[in-house]
Amino acid sequence: MDVAYAIGRKVGNAVLRNRIRRRLRALIDDLDPQPKTGTYLIRCGIETGNLSYDELHSHLLRALERATAL
Q1: Strands 2-7 and 39-44
Q2: Among candidate residues 55, 56, 58, 54, the one with its CA nearest the CA of residue 7
Q3: Could you tell me where the DSSP H helices lie in the chain?
Q4: Chain-centre distance of CA 10, in angstroms?
Q5: In b/e form, how buried is each residue of 31-63, taking b as 16+ CB within 10 angstroms?
Q6: What fold does the segment set 2-68 form as a domain?
Q7: What residues pair up with 42 in beta bridges, in sequence order?
Q8: Rounded distance, CA 10 to CA 46, Å?
């Protein structure tokens, strides 16, 4: 599974954007079962910088459910 991250500068400074990227990588690595094989683009909006780890996890799960339900 290939994953790309689109985290714009409006989300925050480089430190915050990298923290979000690291959290997303960790969340994806820990998913059980892994999503369907494919290429995914994860886009983060301005509010992403304010989410806790658990909130980010729930948002990611919802987005993956919608993406793989096609």
Answers
A1: parallel
A2: 56
A3: 14-29, 53-68
A4: 16
A5: eeeeeeeeebebebeeebbebeeeebbebbeee
A6: Ribosomal Protein S5; domain 2 (3.30.230)
A7: 5
A8: 6
- Hey, what amino acid is at 62? R
Write out pLDDT tens, residues 21-51.
Answer: 999 999 999 999 888 888 999 999 999 999 9
Given the structure tokens 């430190």, which residue do they identify? 15
Measured distance CA(17)–CA(5) in Å, rounded: 10
pTM: 0.90
- Tokens for 9, please give them: 């500068």
SS3 28: helix
Domain extents in the chain: 2-68
